[in-house]
Design brief:
The protein is α/β, with parallel strands linked by helices. It has 2 domains: about 250 residues, P-loop containing nucleotide triphosphate hydrolases (Rossmann fold, 3-Layer(aba) Sandwich); about 220 residues, no CATH class. The protein starts with 8 loop residues before the first helix and ends in a 9-residue tail after the last strand. The strands form 6 sheets. It has a 5-stranded parallel sheet. Strands 14-16-15 form a 3-stranded antiparallel sheet, covered by helices on one side. The longest helix is centred in the middle third of the chain and has 21 residues. Helix 18 crosses helix 22. The protein has 22 helices and 16 strands. Helices cover about 45% and strands about 15% of the residues.
Length: about 475
């Protein structure tokens, strides 16, 4: 296709090309996708009825906007997907540092080239990926970083006055001209730098080292911010807030099913050469850990509990199951509830604790979250029909029965131990039948996983107890994880 594109300004004019602003371009492409019924933000789950409509309205209104939300709420991913609404290629004047539109140039360089070469001015075509610029806001970012600065060496080599526009080393904003400029964690920008932003957003006037330069840039500005930063570490100055067209608030998944769908989409669970089995009840336990953490008063809810937590926990749990399968020479990787405890480092490192939580400790809180998740999921899976088996299991321990397993026990060792507990394997079979609607013989590894799930659920209900060394009994000195 590239050979059919105009290579000079004259060819571009003859082709009938018409310039349009980047916001008009995004609006037109968005409307086309809406008419075609295509997905607007592929891979973004749970925002279809909340966040996405608000973003669409902002883009259709040609507004700059900010995504306001806690960490791990897909803000950066959404912003980066805006690239898909740009045209595949746009023409620029060859050699222009700021993507000058051949039909509406803004830089002195572009005007000089056109004045000298006229319709023979060479044209380049810039792909959409090169029209997206992203900057993480930090307190040390300066106006020069964003807008530009005088380059004395360029002035000397070209024989220009310092006030000449040709001596400017352009910053990120001008270089993003005719594209999308995104700033993550906007409140961390110093106030004087934010002043430079709102001037660009509306007036189009910038000053470089005191020299006034008229540079009407064509940009879609998109920002992200964390509510904690918004009110504590930094703030967005009022004139800048006034110029942001829309504030779109993101959120965590509002149901366990949506959370599981996101986690399974994002987590790396495939292991080369292995069949990996992820029982639904274990994956739901992992997701419930995050949901429970988001309601725990010992955890700082202003910082949030990122969706990265269940993703990391699932990946680590699968790795632990992989290690166990290798050690025991088993044929497949089957996730168990006990594997979640091996992922404690993926939980504790992502929890910001309140004072009360600091007193208890992240490790203990994480273990309690796992046990609580088992109880919640066991209830959701429907204890109806399992009451008899569960009562028999509890009765076994009430009568003095004890079950002792070694950490990382093989499937066979676990089955041998579970057979001694009256009702346990029957309950495990019932759970598995709810996962796999099949008359085939249940795989032993899946039975072990289901039996562990039942035991963990009973521990969560405080009907039995378990010590850190995997000793199940009726006596309950401390509820702890392995």
């Amino acid at each position: 296709m590239s050979e059919t594109r105009a290579k000079t300004l004259g060819e571009l004019k003859s082709s009938g090309y018409h310039s349009r602003s980047v916001k008009d371009e995004i609006r037109a492409n968005l409307l086309e996708r809406l008419r075609a019924g295509k997905p607007l933000f592929p891979g973004i789950i749970g925002y279809e009825e909340t966040v996405v409509p608000q973003i669409v309205n902002a883009l259709l209104s040609r507004h700059n906007f900010i995504l306001l939300g806690l960490r791990g709420q897909a803000k950066s991913r959404i912003v980066r997907q805006l690239i898909d609404y740009l045209d595949p290629f746009i023409p620029v004047i060859a050699g222009s540092e700021i993507n000058d539109d051949p039909l509406a140039p803004v830089s002195k360089y572009a005007h000089q080239v056109i004045e000298e070469l006229g319709d023979e001015t060479p044209i380049e075509w810039v792909p959409r990926e090169s029209r997206y610029v992203e900057k993480l806001a930090t307190p040390d970012v300066t106006i020069a970083d964003l807008v530009g600065d005088i380059d004395p060496i360029r002035a000397a080599r070209g024989g220009h006055l310092l006030a000449d526009e040709l001596t400017i080393h352009f910053g990120l904003l001008p270089r993003a001209n005719r594209g999308i400029f995104a700033i993550n964690e906007l409140p961390d920008l110093a106030g004087k730098v934010q002043v430079g932003l709102f001037n660009i957003m509306q007036e189009g006037d910038i000053q470089i080292k005191g020299f006034p330069v008229r540079l009407p840039l064509d940009l879609l500005l998109v920002f992200t911010a964390n509510p904690e930063d918004y009110t504590a570490r930094g703030k967005i100055i009022t004139p800048l807030k006034d110029r942001i067209g829309a504030e779109v608030v993101t959120h965590y998944p509002n149901s366990l099913d949506l959370g599981v769908e996101i986690t399974l989409q994002e987590a790396w669970t495939e292991r080369e050469g292995w069949e990996v089995v992820l029982p639904e009840f274990v994956v739901e336990m992992i997701e419930q850990v995050a949901f429970s953490a988001r309601e725990d008063n010992r955890i700082d809810q202003r910082s949030g509990v990122s969706q990265r937590l269940p993703i990391s926990v699932l990946e680590t749990s699968v790795s632990n199951a992989e290690r166990r399968a290798l050690i025991h020479g088993e044929d497949s990787i089957i996730l168990r509830p006990s594997d979640i405890y091996a992922a404690l480092p993926a939980i504790t490192g992502k929890l910001e604790l309140e004072y009360e939580g600091e007193l208890v400790g992240a490790d203990r809180i994480a273990r309690e979250l796992i046990v609580d998740a088992a109880r919640e999921v066991l209830v959701w899976w429907g204890k109806e029909g399992l009451e008899e088996e569960l009562d028999r299991i509890v009765e076994y321990f009430e009568e003095g029965g004890v079950l002792q397993l070694a950490e990382g026990s093989s499937t066979k060792a676990c089955l041998d131990g579970f057979e001694s507990v009256d009702g346990l394997l029957e309950a495990a079979h019932a759970v598995v039948r709810r996962v796999i609607d099949s008359g085939e013989e249940t795989e032993a590894g899946l039975l072990v996983s289901a039996a562990e799930f039942v035991l963990e659920g009973l521990v969560g209900e405080r009907r039995i107890s378990r010590t850190a060394d995997y000793r199940y009994s009726r006596h309950r000195p401390v509820m702890a994880g392995p």
